[in-house]
Amino acid sequence: MEASSYTPSEHLSLPDQPGVYRYFNSDNELIYVGKAKSLKKRVSSYFNKNSGVNLKTRRMVKEIVKIEITIVNSEFDALLLENNLIKKTQPKYNILLRDDKTYPYLLLTKENFPRIFQTRKMIPKRGTYFGPFASVKAMNNVLDLIRELFTIRTCKLDLSPYKIAEGKYKVCLEYHIGNCQGPCVGLQREKDYLNDIEQAKHILKGNLGLAKAHFKSEMQKHAENLEFEKAQKTKEKLDLLEKYQAKSLIASPSIVNLDVCTIVTDEKSAYVNYLRVKNGAMNVSKNVELKKKLDESEEELLVTALIRLQDQFQSDATEVLSNIELEEPIEGLNLVKPKIGDKKKLIELSLKNALFYKKEKALLKGLNEDKKDRVIKQLQQDLSLPEIPDHIECFDNSNIQGTSPVASMVCFLNGKPAVKEYRHYHIKTVIGANDFASMKEIVTRRYKRLVEEDKPLPKLVVIDGGKGQLSSAVEALQELGVYGKMPIIGIAKRLEEIYFPGDSYPIHIDKKSESLRLLQRIRDEAHRFAITFHRKVRSKNAFGTQLTAIPGIGENTAEKLLSHFKSVKKISEASKEEVEAVIGTSRAKSLFEWVEKNKGA
User: Fold this and answer.
1) Which of 28, 114, 529, 592 has the lowest CB atom count within 10 Å?
2) The whole model's pTM is what?
3) What is the CATH number of the domain that holds 578?
4) How high is the mean pLDDT in each 10-residue block of the chain (601 residues)?
5) How many structural domains are present in the chain?
6) What CATH number did the domain enclosing 458 receive?
7) Is 271 exposed, middle or buried (0-12, 13-18, 19+ CB in 10 A)?
């Protein structure tokens, strides 16, 4: 399927067919992927509607400079393609089902006398994977059942025929306790072993009925042959299988293969529960939260979650039960809202899980907000501050033996980093390694600007350092006339001592205190931010020094080259025409003569 490209003004010329559309911004960045029954009608709706469209959608539409489409055969195909594209590219305006978990699978290896074991890595050539399992417990229950029913080896030996024939293997403890029949020494035929594997595969696929029929047949054969001990052992396996099925049965066995997907929403999120049911047994239960991006409808959120969860858990169900109905049915997606019977009970069970998940998330959110408020209130109390420090700024310097001196300021709002407010500083007025003078310079520059722009001052200023750095920062605030308008402290690294201006002795906050941990986190973040910037500047200066050593290349030319190519290596790899376009013919000639001369040096 090839993609066709359009501009926003050409939306009326789009085909009236099902497909997927992709929006790009001026940086050629993919910002949204959508599916449509009619590409022309759906895409046009973004550009023709002036009212009833939320702010986020209007903002997205303003960014669109290019539209790409892919035509497919049906709306359901569009759904699948949309899911794959979103999963691969994660555009900023799409609903994202974020899940960092790596789910476990059971792997049936592709080898002589195959093994079955759990893994979280999928390497298709290794064998057949069953899963993923939503919980380790559910997976272990299946694996334990298989190991109780069949004697499947757990060793990693190479059991190819010639290896067994060499006679170098010996039976292990698993053989002596009856968990293995000794295929490594030729005591079990591969044909018999593979028969057990075939029955294990039925169980792994959820087809317990076929495994039960196999054991019933085996039991009857043993009874007819008067092999009563073998018949009893087979009966015990059959009882074990029926007991396992009874435990996992949550509906009528007549419910063969379907999915259940229910949804509840609030203003900002949707909470979805997904169940996968096979032969009346529930083998997957998963809750997910979706953050609303463009004020999406319940139907859109449900379908988005359903397609991605079916893909994630490799469902082949043709029927899906839900607590809502689609206003416009999607061909290929059989979504049903049952009114009575066992299917209605499944909906109630799933909805109960979704509602509990929503309540759990709300409670967790409340606890997090309480903790955040508690920590900054505790900090106010520990430092005897006049106001709750919901706006904290912290400063740090960075230099190595006076080279490339820089500084950083980080900002925390309501106890959380406000990354957009972070600032880097090149030290301009100080020569050499003078941390006190550097601190005074950056504090002056920061708050002079805030005063001139009439922006609010922080509720607490933190200086990374002891009394010397703190005194320098206080001098800066006094000269600006803002000293006393915001509390300021210094925090010394070695003993985590807190210094106040004018106090000879520091205070110590309890080492286990949440408020001290917050101060440490802010201080460490300022240090990290300064160090990162210093490395970048030092690296750039080193590149610049290397370039300015070339005859005919001065600081301005070196700056142009580095701004365009980013590194000396990329400059040396560039073509002559590319370099000439940046710095002209004569300088480019000098540069390439130097590069040629220093090759291999």
Assistant:
1) 28
2) 0.50
3) 1.10.150.20
4) 76 87 92 91 82 76 91 87 85 75 81 90 84 74 82 89 89 88 91 89 76 82 83 81 61 72 90 82 81 86 90 84 87 86 86 89 72 83 90 83 71 90 83 79 92 92 89 94 93 82 83 86 88 64 58 74 70 80 84 69 48
5) 4
6) 3.30.420.340
7) buried
